[in-house]
Hints:
mainly alpha
Amino acid sequence: MTVLQKLNAPVMYLICGAIVLFVALLCVVFAVRAYRAGKAIGMDVTKMKRTVIASATFAVLPSVGILLGVIALSGSLGTPLPWLRLSVIGALHYETQVAEAAAEAVGLPGLSASAMTAEAFTTIALLMGVCIIWGMVFCLFTCKRYTERLSKPRAPKAGKKKGVSLAGFGDTAMTAMFIGLVSAYIGSYVGTLVSGEGLFRFAGSWLPLAVALVGALAMGLFLLIRERKNAAWIDSFSIAGSMLIAMTAAIFLGKLA
């Protein structure tokens, strides 16, 4: 039995499926309690039902991106672990990046199914889990105080400009983090491409850069439509749509690489 067959064994589905089912049940419990709380404070039942239907509808296409992530990772890590990670607390950009970094750290040529070993999978799974738990841990000790500070208006001190709010700082920090991640990956692709000797003797493939460019142009198009048409709803579809367009471009451009 190969490593990939072991990773797709029924016992793996049983373990991961039990956790996903538990989280799904919690979601149902919170949804029911929120609906009942809305009725208790006098909210319009018709509007609440419309909100539920609209939310469920707009959640369909963004979830396609998550499904694509499960499919992409299942080829080397099996289906149960990516299904668990991306169903509970994982994020597509995080899981793929950490898995790639862990695979390279243990000496694998990327997330290769043929080169995957039990030791490499253990390292990858451990790193994927440990690196993402800190948000939950910090919430246990800081979330209550943080939300209390957000709810209290802070008057600016005399003679000083109003400072940046905590919420604004969080958005800025998250944006800066993603810019750093994108810059690091783009830089690595450029470095690999031009690492050959001579001005135009390319050692690597131009495909990652081309796919990244297509994805960026697709996202830019979605943002343009949002601004020009005042279509805020498109935010729910832009990431998944950009991914689908970039992956489609990768298929066609891969034949030219």
